[in-house]
Amino acid sequence: MSNAAAEHAPNPASADGIAARARGLTKAYGSGETTVLALDSVDVDIARGRFTAVMGPSGSGKSTLMHCLAGLDNVSAGQVWLGDTEITGLRERELTRLRRDRIGFMFQSFNLIPTLNAAENITLPMDIAGKKPDEKWLDQVIDTLGLRDRLKHRPSQLSGGQQQRVACARALASRPELIFADEPTGNLDSRAGLEVLGFLREAVDQLGQTVVMVTHDPGAAAHSDLVLFLGDGRIVDEMERPTAEAVLERMRLFAGGDPQTPGFDVVRGRSDGSGPPPGAIPTTGNPSPEEP
Ligand SMILES: Nc1ncnc2c1ncn2[C@@H]1O[C@H](COP(=O)(O)OP(=O)(O)OP(=O)(O)O)[C@@H](O)[C@H]1O
Fold this sequence. Notes:
Layout: E1 18-29, E2 36-47, E3 51-55, H1 62-69, E4 77-82, E5 85-86, H2 92-102, E6 103-107, H3 118-129, H4 135-144, H5 160-173, E7 178-182, H6 190-205, E8 211-214, H7 218-221, E9 226-231, E10 234-240, H8 244-255, H9 264-271
Parallel strand pairs: 3-8, 3-9, 6-7, 7-8
Antiparallel strand pairs: 1-2, 1-4, 4-5, 9-10
Adenosine-5'-triphosphate is lined by residues 29-30, 36, 38, 56, 58-64.
């Protein structure tokens, strides 16, 4: 395992405009012969006020990267900062507070509480923290997400897209420094997926939020400002102002046209005319103004 934070740039914290940062981030699962190196000495900066997508074949380390940046998983070596705070080395209680107060999460499976209505779900993390929401901000979030007339509905009374909008509002409610979204459109049909991506885009452009999204879908990644490509636990490439076509082409190159490559199915489904994988986001509506 090549690593040692000392090999990398010294204390990079406090750089303005950086929401999160990792240096020499290494994560190994298991030990001995069964060790899996999920992240191999990753250096990454997540820019504040931008929408960053993380792509790569299955098993390339996307979720592990997100979990380590968000303090959901401990690291094997290296350092991670959220803003000025080095989170590697924090105790579990401090990490819990940091996640609750400074990070918003969205998951593929929405993770709403079925017995609470939309309004209660949105403010639940703040209620648990004993914090009063900033009502003006909350109103803005609810209106931006078009949830005003759904606030009294329970999750079972909402469509998948509406449920993910509630999850998005919950992630935004405390005005976090960073929102992590793990395959937020994975359980949605393409129309609802496009809607949620549009809201994440608005959260960045109009509300000044910072979003990091893990996705398999080039159409979803095209809504971001920057795509980071992971391969075998390393960042192997990045793309500014992505388009779905350019991302797809890059993924195809990584897969090397080899159907045995994990994740190739996703790429092939969009490149050989056999149609998109289920839930894939159409390339129409791509907000990127420029071809790369
Ligand atoms: N808890 C764990 N125990 C053992 N190995 C793990 C664990 N979690 C992840 N891994 C391994 O680490 C590697 C990276 O996994 P990770 O889930 O980060 O990949 P991913 O890019 O998110 O994959 P996918 O697109 O399939 O979700 C894989 O080889 C995976 O098998």
